[in-house]
Amino acid sequence: MSNFIAVDMGAESGRVILGSFLHNKLELTELGRFETGAQPYGDSIRWDIDRIFDEICTGIGKACEAAKGEIAGIAVDSWGVDYGLLDSQGKLIDRPYHYRDSRTNGMLEKVFAQAGRREVYDNSGIQFMQLNTLYQIYAAKEKQDASLAKAKTMLFIADLVRYFLCGDKRVEYTLASTSQIMDMRTGTWSQHLINKLGLPGTILPEYVQAGTVVGQLKQELAKRFNVKPFAVIAAGSHDTACAVAAVPAKGNNWAYLSSGTWSLMGVEVPKPVINDKTYEYQFTNEGGVCNTIRLLKNIMGLWILQECRRHWQTEGTDLNYEQIAKMATDAKPFAARIDPNYSEFLAPGDMPAKINRYLASTGQPQITDKGQMARIILESLALAYRQTIQMLESLSGPINTLHVVGGGIKNELLCQFTADSTGKKVIAGPVEATAMGNILLQAMALGEVKSLEAARAIVRNSVNLKEYVPQSNQQWLAQYNKYYGSKA
After folding, report:
1. Closest Cα partner for 461 from 434, 429, 438, 435?
2. Fewer beta carbons within 10 Å, N or C terminal of the chain?
3. How does pLDDT run across 343-352, given as a tens digit for each residue?
4. Helix pair angle (433-445, 452-462), 10° resolution
5. CB 158 within 8 Å of CB 78
6. By CB neighbour count within 10 A (0-12 exposed, 13-18 middle, 19+ buried), where does 233 fall?
7. What's the sign of the alpha-carbon dihedral 236, 238, 239, 241?
8. Nearest by Cα to 338 from 281, 383, 386, 283
9. Is the pLDDT of residue 23 over 90?
10. CATH class of 247-429+450-488
11. 3-state secondary structure 254-300
12. What radius of gyration, in Å, describes the C-alpha atoms of the chain?
């Protein structure tokens, strides 16, 4: 039995998980969970990376103890686009900005004034989102950020934590690919965009492929955890890359939906797809593992419901997600609809008020009932999933099955809505797809798992999957046509 540690940092919470292989099964034990959410810092929103790393080390210590010191490797994954800056001495200059910080407001327009929209897309293959690293770096340049002036190296968040663990100053390809600074056709930094926009290209480090052993745990940390130094691996540093690696799919004609704070829906393809249709639909080409590309679309996801829940808590109503789902089940179907990707929903704040402003602006009734608001959010997500599925089918061919992975599968109502709306069979599981993919990619790096197909077979052998079939597709089709028209 081999033991691996996965440090999995999502946009809402982080986990330290011990993974153990036994009889062709992967068993997971969670040994640390902590909040990763952004914090106000002066007039900005930042990640409290020092606290997060302290929490990670606490979890690693518990994992080493649970495994009696027998650890084969560790890997870190995180959300994309955000980064930390190191000075010439290798010290972190300041807390990393959070992608929801307002400094990128208006930056797309400024970038497009220097390099046209199609030019940026053709040289990156990435969906336009103001949170992308490209616009964060451009904002720092425009605002003459002192940290950027001091910086010698930029590391994305998972790569930064891995640097803390072993001192390796490289970035991993799948995470770097989310930045919109890579040319996904070549898999290298886009010198065209760097030069055209006057970006500080010298801070962009060397990159490695997913599944690369990059070093050994620092001696001082090994001593702290009472273990011998073990391998530090760049598995798939982007959390979605790890989650997709753990999709328990077989054969062809399937798509995936990584469901959590964000919803990321797409297909695996062998090479980037950058053409008129992907530009029109705003699909993104992100690096996948094992020489694949994740052709996908970002949808705002359960963030909208998470923010509603947080606001309700400030008003004195503390509801868990199971209670919210029950209230949504009992609410009236199709009372209204929102666009999950509406720009005002991106930033933290009073989400129920934002939803009601959207409803008022689109001539729909405002909502006060919490269960009704939750149902509107879930129905609207499911309708957006249908649109994305139709776009995907026009790009890559028929899709028979949608594999949904991640924490969002705990919301069984959303899973059923997704099957009803898309008209596709939905297979839900695993919940901890990201951690499983992280660990399986480590095992592949060390030769203990031979291929991506073998890794997915281990997932199927290790978890119970739940199937959802469409039950009221015609009703959903009528709603889809009402809001989206009969074409994607």
Report:
1. 429
2. N
3. 999 999 999 9
4. 140
5. yes
6. buried
7. negative
8. 383
9. no
10. alpha beta
11. EEEEEECCCEEEEEEECCCCCCHHHHHHCCEEEECCCCCEEEEEEEC
12. 22
Quick one: how far is CA 411 from the chain centroid? 18
Q: What single letter denotes the amino acid at residue 79?
A: W
Query: Of 193, 198, 156, nearest to 177 (Cα)?
Result: 156
Q: What percent of the chain has pLDDT over 90?
A: 97
Residue at token pair 């992280």: 438
Section 10-29 average pLDDT: 94
Kindly indicate whether the domain formed by 3-239 is annotated with CATH number 3.30.450.40: no
Which structure tokens are listed for 190?
């886009």
Q: Please tell me the distance from the alpha carbon of residue 365 to that of residue 467, in angstroms, as a whole number.
A: 34
Q: Which residues contact 207 (CB under 8 A, 6 or more apart)?
A: 170, 171, 172, 173, 176
Secondary structure element (H or E) that encloses residue 412, with its range: helix 412-422
CA 399 – CA 267 distance, rounded (Å): 9
What is the DSSP secondary structure assignment for residue 185, as one 8-state letter? T
d(CA 343, CA 42): 24
Task: Count the residues in the chain.
Answer: 488
Q: Rounded to whole angstroms, how far apart are CA atoms 168 and 305?
A: 38
Where, residue-wise, is CATH 3.30.420.40 in the chain?
3-239, 247-429+450-488
H-run or E-run covering 189 = strand 188-189
Q: Note if 420 is an active site residue.
A: no
Over residues 143-153, the pLDDT tens digits come to 999 999 999 99
Q: In angstroms, rounded to a whole number, what is the distance separating the alpha carbons of residues 176 and 210?
A: 11
- For CA atoms 113, 115, 116, 118, the dihedral sign is negative
